[in-house]
User: Which sequence fits this backbone?
């Protein structure tokens, strides 16, 4: 079904957690990461959409990274959630241990709001041990984001041979009284006065748009075996933070219950809190965004003799060559966002007919002072004329065209956004 203007679409935010994952590491626990794949009904292939962060030494991870996905009511959107044990820094997953997967539709998740399932092997029939996954869905109705940064002072020392390795977790209180992980900072090793890196979290994830919603900060001491120790916690709201509350005492409930003289386990200080709107591409379009489309075509000899059917520049009367296919496909999308429909079209890596010199920045219409073509059809016509006249050469040097576009962009910016003295 066509995704037209009338399509029923909304953006959904997915929060993922797992329990009882397989342990594939010998001396420690698995380091899980979740990959989301979307099934393409046309090609019948699965395509990766997003990944969560990797959680070290944890068989029951709460992934703090949320996944946003467009939900189309009128479509069956098949999803596959795959869990891997990540033991290296490469993007490729073929050398990582498979921990289990589950297939479902986005409609199933949205209709249930919280989707629970066991994890299965790659055949989708046999269970992957006792592993299970929970996927919580929320409609994204608030597009604001919060930039925060924290540091702490005088945290409790939890390690015997060194100082604590602290990190912060931020949890949102749900309407049913449960808690959902909104963000997790990095670990600062061996430091009782840590300074965590600034981070960005959506208002949706932090409090579902309700600035008075309670949020919980938990400060833990990271341990390599996954048995992290609680340093302390405190409760606040985004509203309270914005109104000026900057210092919070970390309270360890167990220590407080045991010692009447107990005060706190350190202080967490808010260094920055900035709430701002996260603009979407459509916001910019509605605001009058114009895209300036410039074409750069490779005419180096590696493309093959244009007279040969094996060449990327071969003009087949029945089928457009690959350059023409790319021009037509990209141009059909971009042309709607350029009001004058005048596009600079350049080539590089060819020997030109007028002077028999190799050029890495020439106009396809051979008019250096006016390289603009009228619409996509104009570019196609100029390209066809150029192929019939130039001689493919080399080497491959695209930097002059990149610099050409950069100069054009700088000039356009200076004309539309003048500097204020």
Assistant:
């Amino acid at each position: 079904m066509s995704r037209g203007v009338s399509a029923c679409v909304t953006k959904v935010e997915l929060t993922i957690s797992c329990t009882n994952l397989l342990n594939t590491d010998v001396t420690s626990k698995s380091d899980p990461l979740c990959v989301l794949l979307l099934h393409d009904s046309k090609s019948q292939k699965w395509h990766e959409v997003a990944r969560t962060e990797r959680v070290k030494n944890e068989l029951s991870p709460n992934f703090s990274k949320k996944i946003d996905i467009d939900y189309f009511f009128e479509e069956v959107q098949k999803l596959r959630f795959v869990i891997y044990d990540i033991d290296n820094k490469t993007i490729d997953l073929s050398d990582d241990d498979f921990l289990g997967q589950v297939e479902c539709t986005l409609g199933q998740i949205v209709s249930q709001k919280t989707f629970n399932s066991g994890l299965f092997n790659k055949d989708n029939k046999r269970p992957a041990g006792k592993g299970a996954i929970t996927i919580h869905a929320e409609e994204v109705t608030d597009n604001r984001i919060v930039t925060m940064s924290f540091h702490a002072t005088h945290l409790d020392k939890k390690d015997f041979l060194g100082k604590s390795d602290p990190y912060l977790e931020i949890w949102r209180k749900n309407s049913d009284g449960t808690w959902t992980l909104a963000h997790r900072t990095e670990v600062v090793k061996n430091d009782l006065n840590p300074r965590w890196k600034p981070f960005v979290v959506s208002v949706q994830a932090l409090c579902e748009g309700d600035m008075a919603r309670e949020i919980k900060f938990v400060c833990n001491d990271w341990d390599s075996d996954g048995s992290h120790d609680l340093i302390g916690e405190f409760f606040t709201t985004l509203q309270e933070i914005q109104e000026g509350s900057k210092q919070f005492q970390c309270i360890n409930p167990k220590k407080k219950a045991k010692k009447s003289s107990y005060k706190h386990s350190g202080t967490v200080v808010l260094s920055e809190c900035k709430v701002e709107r996260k603009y979407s591409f459509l916001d910019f379009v509605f605001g009058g965004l114009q895209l300036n489309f410039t074409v750069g075509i490779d005419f180096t000899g590696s493309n093959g003799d244009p007279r040969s059917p094996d060449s990327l520049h071969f003009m087949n009367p029945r089928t457009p060559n690959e350059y023409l296919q790319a021009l037509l496909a990209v141009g059909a999308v971009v042309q709607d966002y350029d009001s004058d429909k005048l596009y600079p079209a350049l080539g590089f890596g060819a020997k030109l007919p007028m002077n028999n010199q190799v050029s890495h920045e020439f106009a396809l219409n051979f008019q250096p002072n006016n390289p603009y073509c009228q619409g996509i059809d104009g570019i196609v016509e100029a390209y066809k004329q150029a192929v019939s006249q130039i001689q493919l050469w080399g080497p491959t040097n695209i930097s002059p065209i990149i610099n050409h576009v950069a100069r054009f962009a700088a000039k356009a910016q200076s004309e539309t956004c003048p500097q204020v003295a």
Observations:
- Residues 287-413 form one domain.
